[in-house]
């Protein structure tokens, strides 16, 4: 196993000071030293992983992994590695801020809870990441910007998203992280296993096939936030054989905006034509309040019982950032509910 010679944590803190100084001076990132790299697993190292923000050159199989974003830690854990640091999830997590499927996997691997990074503000906690002394920083499903990437790259190689923030399918995330960890074969095997699980659920619930759906959220007053077809939570339902409602594109006033969702006024909900309305809510009280609104109650999908809410913060997180760990945890419980609602669609 490749061993990294370290001096910590004083040198790491000094590194952050250097990072900040360089950033203020407008200096560009230095090139990673790959001369001493050597193969450390079944995958050959060094490896280079391109992204929209820059190339990550990983010299050897990482031993200290830090994740940032919504779900990278899931792929890391699913591949048998416990990160040294990962985001704290106050939304959907347990008392410590760990999502239930992650907690289960950490226990299964015999690991201890990683350092939990401050994440409520969405700002990258640079000092906390320096303290974790990572070999690699995995953020392929995140919203980091170029300035974040450049600063993080002074700490360790950074794997960011290939094209757009918050838009990477879980399959691609797993492949990228597998490559970064030197576990390409394991990632392919896990991908096949997870996709087979989803297909099995689809086969057991044929009522879902070709049913149209709109995935939305009601987290702004008098506005329905609609998730575009490219969003992973939408794509996951597509994997069950369902079809995105044409209304999603028809109501989209700026399809090239680059965001994974758009807002439309309640004045437009009467234009929505869909077999099923799928939405998420923190709790049942929020779902009840939504359908109590007269405008919403008049929607055919709501009035006819074709409304399939995803209720509970953990379920919302599992749906919002599907992964090889969260998919079976969430879908095994939700698909029977979704199929029961689909039974109400008139043939």
Task: Note the main attributes of this structure.
347 residues; globular; 13 strands; Rossmann fold; six-stranded mixed beta sheet; disordered N terminus; single chain
Question: What does it look like?
Answer:
- Mean pLDDT is 89; it is low at 1-41.
- The protein folds into two domains: 10-182, Rossmann fold, CATH 3.40.50.1980; 195-342, Nitrogenase molybdenum iron protein domain (Rossmann fold, 3-Layer(aba) Sandwich), CATH 3.40.50.1980.
- It is of the alpha/beta class.
- α6 runs antiparallel to α7 (184-204) and α7 packs parallel to α14.
- It has 14 helices and 13 strands.
- The strands form four sheets. Strands 8, 9, 10, 11, 12 and 13 form a six-stranded mixed sheet that branches. The protein has a three-stranded parallel sheet with strand order 3-6-7. Strands 1-2 form a two-stranded antiparallel ribbon.
- It starts with 9 loop residues before the first helix and ends in a 5-residue tail after the last helix.
- β6 (136-138), α5 (146-152) and β7 (158-159) form a beta-alpha-beta unit.
How is this fold's topology laid out?
Blueprint: H1 10-24, E1 47-49, E2 56-58, E3 65-67, H2 72-78, E4 85-87, H3 100-108, E5 115-117, H4 126-132, E6 136-138, H5 146-152, E7 158-159, H6 170-181, H7 184-204, E8 212-220, E9 223-227, H8 232-239, E10 243-244, H9 246-250, E11 261-265, E12 276-281, H10 284-292, H11 294-297, H12 300-303, E13 307-311, H13 313-320, H14 326-342
Parallel strand pairs: 3-6, 4-5, 6-7, 8-10, 8-12, 12-13
Antiparallel strand pairs: 1-2, 8-9, 9-11
